[in-house]
Design goal:
The chain is an alpha+beta fold. It is built from five helices and seven strands.
C-alpha cells in the first residue's frame, strides 16, 4: 500500500491553522480592511474553508481570498504538502510523484508558490557602505534550439562580442549592489545605461550611503 503525504493531512485542521495565522488580530475584509464581518457558512467544495461577508463593502471572501491558494483547483492539502516538500529542497518532479500530480501542474505550482514568496518579501534596503559593480553573462541560445541546428559540437562556451554587452546581443549585464557585512541585491539589466541603473540604485540604496564603484561613467549619477 502506498501512503502519500497528502493523505496524512486533515483539511479542516489546515484551514483552522490558516485562520489562526491570518486573522491574528481578528478577521478583517481583504478589500476594505473593515472588521465588521459576518460569517456566511462553509465553502461548498472545501468544507473546512470558512466564508465571510463584509458588512461595510458587502463583498464576500473566504479564508484564502487574496492568497496564493485562492482560486486553485488543487485542494489546500495538496498545496500545503507541496509547500512543505518545496521547503525541503525537493524538485518539481519528485514532488509530482509523491503527490500524484502531472509534471506540468507541479511546475506551475512551484512557480506560483515561489512568486508568492517573492511578492511578499520586503524590498532590500542597503545603507552605510555599499559596493556596486556589473558583470556580463553570455546568454547563448538557451530556449532557442533552432538557433543551433546542424551546428558542430563545441567544447568552449559561446564567446560574446568584445566590450560591454546588452540583453539584445545575448551578453546581458548583471548588476550587483552589496552592503559591507550586509545584504545583497542582484538584477539582470537590458543594458548598462545610466537611466537603466539609476532606478535600481535609488530604490535599493538609502540616501547618505557611501557608495564604492569603479570609474565607469554610468555611476556619475
Amino acid at each position: 500500500m502506498i501512503l502519500r503525504l497528502q493523505e496524512l493531512i486533515d483539511e479542516s485542521k489546515v484551514y483552522a491553522t490558516i485562520r489562526k495565522l491570518r486573522w491574528k488580530s481578528g478577521c478583517h475584509c481583504p478589500f476594505c480592511s473593515s472588521t465588521k464581518i459576518r460569517k456566511r457558512g462553509k465553502n461548498n467544495r472545501h468544507q473546512g474553508c470558512q466564508r465571510y461577508q463584509c458588512q461595510k463593502c458587502a463583498r464576500r471572501f473566504d479564508d484564502v481570498t487574496g492568497t496564493v491558494f485562492s482560486g486553485r483547483h488543487q485542494s489546500i492539502t495538496v498545496w500545503i504538502s507541496y509547500l512543505y516538500l518545496l521547503g525541503l529542497n525537493s524538485s518539481a518532479n519528485p514532488i509530482a510523484a509523491e503527490l500524484g500530480l502531472c509534471a506540468s501542474d507541479s511546475q506551475r505550482m512551484a512557480e506560483q508558490l515561489r512568486q508568492g514568496v517573492v511578492s511578499r518579501k520586503q524590498a532590500v534596503q542597503l545603507t552605510d557602505k555599499v559596493e556596486c559593480d556589473e558583470v556580463y553573462s553570455v546568454a547563448g541560445h538557451k530556449g532557442i534550439p533552432t538557433a543551433i541546428n546542424n551546428r558542430d559540437p563545441r567544447r568552449n562556451r559561446l564567446k560574446g562580442a568584445r566590450g560591454r554587452g546588452t540583453l539584445a546581443t545575448e551578453k546581458p549585464p548583471v548588476f550587483g549592489m552589496i552592503q559591507r557585512n550586509g545584504q545583497v541585491r542582484i538584477v539582470m539589466l537590458p543594458n548598462v545605461q545610466q537611466n537603466t541603473i539609476k532606478p535600481f540604485i535609488e530604490q535599493t540604496i538609502s540616501k547618505g550611503t557611501l557608495i564604492y564603484t569603479d570609474e565607469y561613467t554610468i555611476y556619475s549619477i
